[in-house]
Design goal:
CATH class of the largest domain: Alpha Beta
Shape: elongated
CATH architecture of the largest domain: 3-Layer(aba) Sandwich
Number of domains: 2
CATH topology of the largest domain: Collagenase (Catalytic Domain)
Radius of gyration: 25 Å
Structural class: alpha+beta
Length: 444
Protein backbone atom coordinates (compact mmCIF):
# COMPACT_ATOMS: atom_id res chain seq x y z
CA UNK A 1 0.00 0.00 0.00
CA UNK A 2 1.29 3.43 -0.89
CA UNK A 3 0.10 6.29 1.27
CA UNK A 4 0.37 10.02 1.65
CA UNK A 5 -0.17 11.58 5.02
CA UNK A 6 -1.76 14.88 5.90
CA UNK A 7 -1.72 15.89 9.56
CA UNK A 8 -3.45 19.16 10.21
CA UNK A 9 -3.72 19.96 13.88
CA UNK A 10 -5.69 22.72 15.47
CA UNK A 11 -6.16 23.15 19.16
CA UNK A 12 -8.61 25.28 21.18
CA UNK A 13 -10.14 25.53 24.92
CA UNK A 14 -11.81 24.23 28.38
CA UNK A 15 -11.35 22.88 32.20
CA UNK A 16 -13.60 20.81 34.58
CA UNK A 17 -14.82 17.26 34.02
CA UNK A 18 -18.43 18.04 33.21
CA UNK A 19 -21.38 16.27 34.76
CA UNK A 20 -23.64 15.82 31.75
CA UNK A 21 -26.99 14.11 31.66
CA UNK A 22 -27.21 13.52 27.89
CA UNK A 23 -23.91 11.81 27.09
CA UNK A 24 -24.95 8.30 26.14
CA UNK A 25 -22.76 6.49 23.69
CA UNK A 26 -24.44 4.23 21.36
CA UNK A 27 -20.67 33.81 10.02
CA UNK A 28 -17.25 35.47 10.03
CA UNK A 29 -15.63 37.13 13.03
CA UNK A 30 -13.88 40.43 12.59
CA UNK A 31 -10.21 40.79 13.33
CA UNK A 32 -11.06 43.04 16.21
CA UNK A 33 -13.32 40.36 17.63
CA UNK A 34 -10.51 37.82 17.80
CA UNK A 35 -7.33 39.67 18.39
CA UNK A 36 -6.81 41.10 21.84
CA UNK A 37 -3.58 42.46 23.21
CA UNK A 38 -1.93 40.56 26.05
CA UNK A 39 -0.78 42.04 29.32
CA UNK A 40 -0.01 41.02 32.88
CA UNK A 41 -3.18 40.61 34.92
CA UNK A 42 -2.08 43.23 37.42
CA UNK A 43 -1.94 45.93 34.76
CA UNK A 44 -4.13 45.20 31.75
CA UNK A 45 -3.47 46.85 28.41
CA UNK A 46 -5.80 49.69 27.49
CA UNK A 47 -5.40 49.14 23.73
CA UNK A 48 -3.93 52.54 23.12
CA UNK A 49 -6.65 54.45 24.92
CA UNK A 50 -4.26 57.16 26.08
CA UNK A 51 -4.71 60.66 24.69
CA UNK A 52 -2.33 63.25 23.32
CA UNK A 53 -3.13 66.97 23.64
CA UNK A 54 -1.45 70.36 23.43
CA UNK A 55 -0.98 73.02 26.10
CA UNK A 56 -2.56 76.46 25.82
CA UNK A 57 0.80 78.03 24.98
CA UNK A 58 1.10 75.78 21.92
CA UNK A 59 3.84 73.57 23.30
CA UNK A 60 3.00 69.93 22.69
CA UNK A 61 2.65 67.89 25.88
CA UNK A 62 1.61 64.30 26.46
CA UNK A 63 -1.29 63.99 28.85
CA UNK A 64 -1.52 61.16 31.36
CA UNK A 65 -3.60 58.18 30.27
CA UNK A 66 -7.17 58.31 31.56
CA UNK A 67 -8.03 56.50 34.77
CA UNK A 68 -10.15 53.44 34.09
CA UNK A 69 -13.24 52.69 36.15
CA UNK A 70 -15.95 50.00 36.02
CA UNK A 71 -18.24 50.74 33.08
CA UNK A 72 -21.55 52.29 34.13
CA UNK A 73 -24.93 51.20 32.77
CA UNK A 74 -23.77 48.28 30.64
CA UNK A 75 -24.57 44.87 32.13
CA UNK A 76 -23.01 41.50 31.27
CA UNK A 77 -25.77 38.94 30.61
CA UNK A 78 -23.60 35.91 29.86
CA UNK A 79 -20.15 34.68 28.92
CA UNK A 80 -20.39 32.05 26.20
CA UNK A 81 -17.69 29.55 25.30
CA UNK A 82 -17.89 28.01 21.84
CA UNK A 83 -15.67 25.36 20.26
CA UNK A 84 -18.33 24.30 17.75
CA UNK A 85 -21.43 24.48 19.90
CA UNK A 86 -21.98 27.22 22.46
CA UNK A 87 -22.67 27.14 26.18
CA UNK A 88 -22.65 29.67 29.01
CA UNK A 89 -19.77 29.54 31.47
CA UNK A 90 -21.11 32.60 33.33
CA UNK A 91 -24.58 34.17 33.56
CA UNK A 92 -24.92 37.65 34.95
CA UNK A 93 -22.41 37.84 37.77
CA UNK A 94 -22.46 34.10 38.48
CA UNK A 95 -20.19 31.28 37.37
CA UNK A 96 -22.02 28.35 35.77
CA UNK A 97 -21.23 25.21 37.73
CA UNK A 98 -20.60 21.83 36.03
CA UNK A 99 -24.18 20.69 36.61
CA UNK A 100 -25.40 23.70 34.60
CA UNK A 101 -23.11 23.14 31.62
CA UNK A 102 -24.37 21.62 28.38
CA UNK A 103 -21.23 20.49 26.54
CA UNK A 104 -17.78 19.08 27.08
CA UNK A 105 -14.94 21.59 26.72
CA UNK A 106 -12.05 20.03 24.81
CA UNK A 107 -8.50 20.74 25.92
CA UNK A 108 -5.93 21.92 23.36
CA UNK A 109 -8.69 23.06 21.02
CA UNK A 110 -9.24 26.77 20.34
CA UNK A 111 -12.25 28.25 22.04
CA UNK A 112 -14.14 31.43 21.23
CA UNK A 113 -15.31 33.40 24.28
CA UNK A 114 -18.18 35.84 23.68
CA UNK A 115 -19.28 38.39 26.28
CA UNK A 116 -22.97 39.24 25.79
CA UNK A 117 -24.44 42.39 27.35
CA UNK A 118 -27.37 44.78 27.53
CA UNK A 119 -27.47 48.56 27.77
CA UNK A 120 -30.35 50.80 28.95
CA UNK A 121 -32.58 52.79 26.60
CA UNK A 122 -30.81 56.05 27.49
CA UNK A 123 -27.37 54.62 26.76
CA UNK A 124 -24.89 57.05 25.20
CA UNK A 125 -22.73 55.26 22.59
CA UNK A 126 -19.13 55.06 23.73
CA UNK A 127 -16.10 52.83 23.84
CA UNK A 128 -15.96 50.13 26.49
CA UNK A 129 -13.01 47.86 27.16
CA UNK A 130 -13.45 44.21 28.11
CA UNK A 131 -10.67 42.48 30.03
CA UNK A 132 -10.54 38.71 30.07
CA UNK A 133 -8.30 37.63 32.93
CA UNK A 134 -6.84 34.13 32.68
CA UNK A 135 -4.85 32.12 35.20
CA UNK A 136 -3.31 28.67 34.90
CA UNK A 137 -2.15 25.86 37.17
CA UNK A 138 1.49 26.46 36.18
CA UNK A 139 1.36 29.93 37.75
CA UNK A 140 0.87 31.95 34.56
CA UNK A 141 -1.50 34.90 34.52
CA UNK A 142 -2.51 36.98 31.51
CA UNK A 143 -5.16 39.45 30.46
CA UNK A 144 -6.68 39.75 27.00
CA UNK A 145 -8.36 43.05 26.17
CA UNK A 146 -10.75 44.29 23.54
CA UNK A 147 -12.14 47.79 23.06
CA UNK A 148 -15.56 48.01 21.42
CA UNK A 149 -17.71 50.97 20.43
CA UNK A 150 -20.93 50.00 22.20
CA UNK A 151 -23.98 51.53 20.55
CA UNK A 152 -26.66 49.02 21.58
CA UNK A 153 -27.14 45.71 23.34
CA UNK A 154 -25.25 42.78 21.84
CA UNK A 155 -26.89 40.37 19.41
CA UNK A 156 -26.12 36.62 19.46
CA UNK A 157 -26.28 36.47 15.65
CA UNK A 158 -23.41 38.96 15.27
CA UNK A 159 -19.85 38.25 16.37
CA UNK A 160 -19.07 41.93 15.85
CA UNK A 161 -21.65 43.03 18.43
CA UNK A 162 -20.15 41.07 21.35
CA UNK A 163 -16.78 41.27 23.03
CA UNK A 164 -15.15 38.30 21.33
CA UNK A 165 -11.91 36.59 22.33
CA UNK A 166 -10.18 33.44 21.13
CA UNK A 167 -8.40 31.17 23.58
CA UNK A 168 -5.66 29.65 21.46
CA UNK A 169 -4.28 26.20 22.03
CA UNK A 170 -0.94 27.12 20.51
CA UNK A 171 -0.57 29.84 23.16
CA UNK A 172 -1.28 27.45 26.02
CA UNK A 173 -4.66 29.02 26.79
CA UNK A 174 -6.82 25.90 26.28
CA UNK A 175 -5.62 23.74 29.13
CA UNK A 176 -7.22 21.95 32.09
CA UNK A 177 -7.17 24.06 35.24
CA UNK A 178 -7.54 27.41 33.45
CA UNK A 179 -9.63 30.01 35.28
CA UNK A 180 -11.31 33.13 33.89
CA UNK A 181 -12.91 36.40 34.92
CA UNK A 182 -14.31 39.18 32.70
CA UNK A 183 -14.44 42.88 33.57
CA UNK A 184 -15.77 45.90 31.66
CA UNK A 185 -14.05 49.30 31.99
CA UNK A 186 -14.34 52.81 30.61
CA UNK A 187 -12.38 56.04 31.17
CA UNK A 188 -13.36 58.14 34.17
CA UNK A 189 -16.27 60.43 33.33
CA UNK A 190 -17.22 58.62 30.11
CA UNK A 191 -20.49 57.31 31.49
CA UNK A 192 -23.05 58.25 34.09
CA UNK A 193 -24.84 56.24 36.73
CA UNK A 194 -23.78 53.23 38.71
CA UNK A 195 -22.04 50.12 37.38
CA UNK A 196 -24.38 47.16 36.84
CA UNK A 197 -22.96 43.67 36.19
CA UNK A 198 -19.54 44.87 35.09
CA UNK A 199 -17.60 41.85 36.34
CA UNK A 200 -18.20 38.07 36.20
CA UNK A 201 -17.82 35.78 38.02
CA UNK A 202 -18.35 38.47 40.62
CA UNK A 203 -16.84 36.42 43.45
CA UNK A 204 -13.53 35.86 41.65
CA UNK A 205 -11.98 33.81 38.82
CA UNK A 206 -13.37 30.32 38.31
CA UNK A 207 -12.85 27.31 36.06
CA UNK A 208 -13.28 27.45 32.30
CA UNK A 209 -13.91 23.70 32.37
CA UNK A 210 -11.42 21.98 30.06
CA UNK A 211 -11.54 18.20 30.07
CA UNK A 212 -8.42 16.24 30.99
CA UNK A 213 -8.88 13.51 28.35
CA UNK A 214 -7.35 14.01 24.89
CA UNK A 215 -9.47 13.29 21.81
CA UNK A 216 -8.44 12.87 18.20
CA UNK A 217 -9.94 11.59 14.97
CA UNK A 218 -8.04 9.33 12.54
CA UNK A 219 -9.51 8.67 9.09
CA UNK A 220 -8.07 6.73 6.16
CA UNK A 221 -9.42 8.32 2.98
CA UNK A 222 -9.80 5.66 0.26
CA UNK A 223 -10.33 7.05 -3.26
CA UNK A 224 -12.14 4.56 -5.49
CA UNK A 225 -10.99 3.69 -9.00
CA UNK A 226 -14.44 2.94 -10.40
CA UNK A 227 -14.58 0.56 -13.38
CA UNK A 228 -18.21 -0.50 -13.19
CA UNK A 229 -20.61 0.13 -16.09
CA UNK A 230 -17.66 0.52 -18.45
CA UNK A 231 -16.45 3.55 -16.49
CA UNK A 232 -12.84 4.35 -15.68
CA UNK A 233 -12.96 7.12 -13.08
CA UNK A 234 -10.52 7.69 -10.24
CA UNK A 235 -11.67 9.89 -7.38
CA UNK A 236 -8.97 12.55 -7.48
CA UNK A 237 -8.10 13.88 -4.02
CA UNK A 238 -5.63 16.76 -4.03
CA UNK A 239 -3.88 18.35 -1.07
CA UNK A 240 -6.39 21.19 -1.32
CA UNK A 241 -9.24 18.68 -1.22
CA UNK A 242 -7.75 17.03 1.86
CA UNK A 243 -7.53 20.40 3.57
CA UNK A 244 -11.24 21.06 2.91
CA UNK A 245 -12.17 17.59 4.13
CA UNK A 246 -10.09 18.11 7.26
CA UNK A 247 -11.80 21.46 7.88
CA UNK A 248 -15.24 19.83 7.62
CA UNK A 249 -14.37 17.06 10.08
CA UNK A 250 -12.51 19.35 12.47
CA UNK A 251 -15.25 21.95 12.76
CA UNK A 252 -17.91 19.32 13.53
CA UNK A 253 -15.96 17.02 15.87
CA UNK A 254 -14.88 17.76 19.48
CA UNK A 255 -11.22 16.84 19.03
CA UNK A 256 -7.81 18.50 19.22
CA UNK A 257 -6.78 17.19 15.83
CA UNK A 258 -8.01 15.36 12.76
CA UNK A 259 -5.45 13.05 11.19
CA UNK A 260 -6.19 12.18 7.57
CA UNK A 261 -4.21 9.65 5.57
CA UNK A 262 -4.72 9.25 1.82
CA UNK A 263 -4.73 5.64 0.62
CA UNK A 264 -3.76 4.57 -2.87
CA UNK A 265 -6.85 4.16 -5.12
CA UNK A 266 -8.87 0.99 -4.61
CA UNK A 267 -10.02 -0.60 -7.87
CA UNK A 268 -13.72 -1.48 -7.85
CA UNK A 269 -15.24 -3.05 -10.96
CA UNK A 270 -18.79 -3.91 -9.86
CA UNK A 271 -21.69 -1.87 -11.15
CA UNK A 272 -23.18 0.65 -8.72
CA UNK A 273 -26.47 2.07 -9.94
CA UNK A 274 -29.12 4.20 -8.32
CA UNK A 275 -30.87 1.41 -6.41
CA UNK A 276 -31.21 2.76 -2.89
CA UNK A 277 -31.85 -0.71 -1.47
CA UNK A 278 -28.62 -2.38 -2.63
CA UNK A 279 -26.97 1.03 -2.48
CA UNK A 280 -23.25 1.10 -1.84
CA UNK A 281 -23.17 -2.18 0.06
CA UNK A 282 -20.83 -4.00 -2.39
CA UNK A 283 -18.35 -1.14 -2.16
CA UNK A 284 -18.57 -1.03 1.62
CA UNK A 285 -17.85 -4.75 1.76
CA UNK A 286 -14.73 -4.26 -0.35
CA UNK A 287 -13.50 -1.41 1.86
CA UNK A 288 -14.21 -3.41 5.02
CA UNK A 289 -12.14 -6.27 3.59
CA UNK A 290 -9.34 -3.80 2.85
CA UNK A 291 -9.43 -2.53 6.41
CA UNK A 292 -9.37 -6.05 7.81
CA UNK A 293 -6.38 -6.95 5.64
CA UNK A 294 -4.40 -3.88 6.65
CA UNK A 295 -5.22 -4.23 10.37
CA UNK A 296 -4.95 -0.56 11.43
CA UNK A 297 -5.43 0.59 15.02
CA UNK A 298 -8.97 0.23 16.38
CA UNK A 299 -9.51 3.99 16.30
CA UNK A 300 -8.83 4.36 12.55
CA UNK A 301 -11.91 4.92 10.39
CA UNK A 302 -11.95 4.06 6.67
CA UNK A 303 -13.92 6.36 4.37
CA UNK A 304 -14.30 5.59 0.66
CA UNK A 305 -14.82 8.36 -1.90
CA UNK A 306 -16.68 7.38 -5.08
CA UNK A 307 -16.75 9.62 -8.15
CA UNK A 308 -19.27 8.67 -10.84
CA UNK A 309 -19.29 12.14 -12.35
CA UNK A 310 -22.45 13.12 -10.47
CA UNK A 311 -23.77 13.82 -6.99
CA UNK A 312 -26.01 10.75 -6.50
CA UNK A 313 -25.27 7.09 -7.15
CA UNK A 314 -26.05 6.06 -10.71
CA UNK A 315 -26.41 9.72 -11.70
CA UNK A 316 -30.10 9.51 -10.90
CA UNK A 317 -30.66 13.23 -10.16
CA UNK A 318 -31.74 12.71 -6.58
CA UNK A 319 -33.09 9.19 -6.80
CA UNK A 320 -29.89 7.50 -5.67
CA UNK A 321 -27.71 7.72 -2.60
CA UNK A 322 -25.33 10.40 -1.37
CA UNK A 323 -23.46 7.99 0.88
CA UNK A 324 -23.75 5.02 3.19
CA UNK A 325 -22.11 3.53 6.28
CA UNK A 326 -21.65 -0.20 6.65
CA UNK A 327 -23.26 -0.18 10.11
CA UNK A 328 -23.60 1.76 13.35
CA UNK A 329 -20.89 0.22 15.53
CA UNK A 330 -20.50 0.46 19.27
CA UNK A 331 -17.30 1.53 21.02
CA UNK A 332 -15.81 -1.92 21.57
CA UNK A 333 -12.58 -3.12 19.99
CA UNK A 334 -14.45 -6.03 18.43
CA UNK A 335 -16.44 -3.66 16.21
CA UNK A 336 -13.43 -1.94 14.64
CA UNK A 337 -14.08 -3.45 11.18
CA UNK A 338 -17.47 -1.72 11.12
CA UNK A 339 -15.85 1.72 11.17
CA UNK A 340 -16.29 1.99 7.41
CA UNK A 341 -18.29 4.50 5.35
CA UNK A 342 -18.53 5.77 1.78
CA UNK A 343 -19.60 9.05 0.20
CA UNK A 344 -20.28 10.27 -3.31
CA UNK A 345 -17.38 12.53 -4.25
CA UNK A 346 -18.55 15.09 -6.77
CA UNK A 347 -16.20 17.78 -8.07
CA UNK A 348 -17.80 19.87 -10.79
CA UNK A 349 -15.29 22.44 -12.01
CA UNK A 350 -12.63 20.74 -9.89
CA UNK A 351 -14.05 21.67 -6.46
CA UNK A 352 -15.77 19.38 -3.95
CA UNK A 353 -19.42 20.25 -3.51
CA UNK A 354 -20.67 21.30 -0.11
CA UNK A 355 -23.16 18.43 -0.26
CA UNK A 356 -20.33 15.92 -0.65
CA UNK A 357 -18.56 17.36 2.40
CA UNK A 358 -21.79 17.30 4.44
CA UNK A 359 -22.34 13.69 3.38
CA UNK A 360 -18.88 12.70 4.60
CA UNK A 361 -19.61 14.20 8.02
CA UNK A 362 -23.04 12.51 8.17
CA UNK A 363 -21.85 9.05 7.11
CA UNK A 364 -18.84 9.26 9.42
CA UNK A 365 -21.30 10.07 12.20
CA UNK A 366 -22.89 6.66 11.72
CA UNK A 367 -19.49 4.99 12.17
CA UNK A 368 -19.17 6.94 15.44
CA UNK A 369 -22.35 5.30 16.70
CA UNK A 370 -24.88 7.98 15.72
CA UNK A 371 -28.34 7.11 14.44
CA UNK A 372 -30.44 9.35 12.23
CA UNK A 373 -32.19 12.39 13.70
CA UNK A 374 -35.81 13.08 12.81
CA UNK A 375 -36.73 16.37 11.15
CA UNK A 376 -40.17 17.24 9.73
CA UNK A 377 -39.35 17.05 6.01
CA UNK A 378 -36.41 14.64 6.15
CA UNK A 379 -37.99 11.22 5.72
CA UNK A 380 -35.14 9.39 7.44
CA UNK A 381 -35.49 5.92 8.96
CA UNK A 382 -33.87 4.55 12.09
CA UNK A 383 -34.15 7.82 14.01
CA UNK A 384 -32.79 8.12 17.52
CA UNK A 385 -35.77 8.52 19.89
CA UNK A 386 -33.57 10.11 22.55
CA UNK A 387 -32.69 13.19 20.49
CA UNK A 388 -33.88 16.14 22.62
CA UNK A 389 -35.47 18.42 20.01
CA UNK A 390 -38.65 17.08 18.34
CA UNK A 391 -37.83 18.89 15.09
CA UNK A 392 -34.15 17.97 14.97
CA UNK A 393 -32.88 21.51 15.64
CA UNK A 394 -29.39 21.98 17.11
CA UNK A 395 -30.59 23.86 20.20
CA UNK A 396 -27.52 26.09 20.78
CA UNK A 397 -25.52 28.60 18.78
CA UNK A 398 -22.97 26.82 16.62
CA UNK A 399 -19.69 28.26 15.37
CA UNK A 400 -17.22 27.05 12.77
CA UNK A 401 -13.76 27.60 14.26
CA UNK A 402 -12.12 27.80 10.84
CA UNK A 403 -14.87 29.54 8.85
CA UNK A 404 -16.05 31.76 11.75
CA UNK A 405 -19.60 31.11 10.55
CA UNK A 406 -22.40 31.19 13.14
CA UNK A 407 -25.17 28.58 13.07
CA UNK A 408 -28.56 29.59 14.47
CA UNK A 409 -30.15 27.18 16.98
CA UNK A 410 -33.77 27.67 15.93
CA UNK A 411 -33.01 27.41 12.21
CA UNK A 412 -30.37 24.73 11.64
CA UNK A 413 -30.76 20.98 12.00
CA UNK A 414 -28.51 18.30 13.40
CA UNK A 415 -26.19 16.89 10.73
CA UNK A 416 -27.53 13.38 11.37
CA UNK A 417 -30.93 14.48 10.03
CA UNK A 418 -31.91 14.74 6.36
CA UNK A 419 -32.73 18.46 6.63
CA UNK A 420 -30.62 21.47 5.72
CA UNK A 421 -28.93 23.70 6.74
CA UNK A 422 -27.15 21.32 9.07
CA UNK A 423 -24.72 21.67 11.98
CA UNK A 424 -24.51 20.08 15.43
CA UNK A 425 -25.64 20.92 18.94
CA UNK A 426 -24.67 19.80 22.45
CA UNK A 427 -26.31 16.37 22.15
CA UNK A 428 -24.28 15.23 19.13
CA UNK A 429 -21.15 17.04 20.37
CA UNK A 430 -21.23 15.14 23.66
CA UNK A 431 -21.88 11.73 22.09
CA UNK A 432 -19.04 12.10 19.60
CA UNK A 433 -16.68 13.36 22.31
CA UNK A 434 -17.38 10.27 24.40
CA UNK A 435 -16.64 8.11 21.37
CA UNK A 436 -13.51 10.04 20.37
CA UNK A 437 -11.90 9.84 23.78
CA UNK A 438 -12.86 6.18 24.26
CA UNK A 439 -11.42 5.30 20.85
CA UNK A 440 -8.34 7.52 20.95
CA UNK A 441 -5.97 4.53 21.11
CA UNK A 442 -2.20 4.84 21.15
CA UNK A 443 -0.73 7.93 19.54
CA UNK A 444 1.35 7.07 16.49
Amino acid sequence: MTTRSLQLSVSLLSTLALCLSACGDDSGASASGDAGSSADSSEASTDGASSVGSASDGAGTTEAPPAWVPAAGISITSVELNQGTGQDIARGGDWVEPAGRTSFVVQERDAVVRVHFTVPDDWSPREVEARLHLSYLDGRDETLTQALLVEASSEPASLDSTFTFTLRAEDGQAVPGAKFQVELYEPTGAGQGEPAVWRTPDDGPNWVGFEADPAQLKIMIVPIHYKGDGSDIVAEVTDEDLARIEDAFFETNPVQEVLLELHSPLVFAESLGGDIFSGLSPLLTAVAQLRAAERPADNVYYHALLDQGCQFTGCTEGGGLLGQAINIPGPSMGEANLRVASSMYYKPDGEITGLSLETMVHEHGHTQGLMHVFCPSGGSFGNDPSFPDPEGKIGAWGLGLRSRQLHEPGVEFDYMSYCRPAWLGPWTWNKTYERARSRRGPRT
